[in-house]
Amino acid sequence: MDKQITSLHLDVLKEIGNIGAAHAATSLSMLLNKKIDMHVPKVEMVPFNDMMELVGGPENVVVGIYLRIEGDAKGSMFFILPVEQADRFIQRLIQDEAFSFSKMPVAEIGLSAMQEMGNILSGSYLSAFSDFTGLKIYPTVPGLSVDMFGAIISTGLIELSHVSDHVIVINTSILEEGIEPTESVKGHFFLLPEPSSFTAIFNALGVS
């Protein structure tokens, strides 16, 4: 299955990603009351081990949004942010510079803000995906976890590892107005479709 994923498939997924990012940027701009730019600089298919290294290794503590995808295409989806970048974003969102996901117990307002961000990002991406492919897909309510990356993603990997050793990575850059480009928030979407869903997805895209 992994060998069937070509650069054309990844280009199509990047285009869908940028459409989703544009929708998400509009929603986040309204939420933050300032202009937000989002784009997808790269989509790649990587082995599980390389995926772990993208976020600093399986023991690196990250903020993770995760959900199941149901409907015509099934699978799991994760949005992963380094803790310090998630802190910075949520501090601006709730206007509290003292907020941190590392301080226990984590303030409820920050968790709610991150959950809302997760809803916007995953909803925007999956909506673009559904519009583009014509597939009816339904995300579950996103869950939120602050934990080691290996622990957060293990559920999706266990399901997929029987049939594949690769995952689709959608790199995402979020830039707030007035912030230097070097300070942009860089997150990763990890898309783990079930094996049967790969065929449905790429047939729908016309690149079977």
TrEMBL record:
Keywords: Chemotaxis, Hydrolase. One of its GO terms (molecular function) is hydrolase activity. Residues 8-44, 109-145 form the CheC-like protein domain. The keyword Chloroplast does not apply. Pfam families: CheC. It comes from the Bacteria. InterPro entries: CheC, CheC-like_sf, CheZ_family_phosphatases. One of its GO terms (biological process) is chemotaxis. This is CheY-P phosphatase CheC. The gene is cheC.
